[in-house]
Design brief:
Length: 148
């Protein structure tokens, strides 16, 4: 399967913030940065990357670029059920990689982020065998996470 770019663009969101269920995530772009938010838990995104309606998807995908750094970050806003959030991020990441093809994602730094009201202010969980690194945080301003 190849990534349907037109389908992906249909999922682009206006602005650089998103919120639901009392949680939110935002980025204030700095000079020279490109930041795009995509609604990944939508029928268009699912179709674009080959996720079925029964497979898990995270809430949004954030694209960040400031030469030479390029980041794709999968974000889930979750009050509890943190392990479920991790699963949603991993499944969305896997589907996006499969749809993109490995040759098209060279140079991309992959990140996962769970916005939650539990846990520490920024907690890293270990990644295993090439999985995406997922960070849990209470804070919705993710600019620093994307930039480092």
């Amino acid at each position: 399967m190849s990534l349907n770019v037109i389908g992906l663009l249909k999922c682009a969101m206006r602005g650089t913030s998103f919120g639901e269920r009392g949680k939110s995530v935002s980025v204030e772009p700095e000079a020279g940065e490109i930041v795009l938010f995509f609604r990944s838990d939508s029928p268009d995104f699912r179709s674009c990357v080959g996720l079925t309606s029964v497979e898990k998807a995270c809430d949004i995908m954030v694209f960040y670029y400031k030469s030479p750094k390029m980041v794709i970050c999968f974000v889930e806003l979750k009050g509890s059920e943190i392990e479920k959030a991790h699963e949603q991020i991993r499944e969305t990441h896997r589907a996006f990689l499969n749809a993109s093809g490995s040759g098209n994602t060279q140079g991309v730094e992959w990140k996962g982020l769970v916005i939650t009201d539990s846990g520490s202010s920024a907690r890293n969980r270990p990644k295993s065998n090439g999985e995406i690194k997922i960070v849990e945080t209470k804070h919705g301003n993710i600019g620093d996470i994307l930039r480092k």
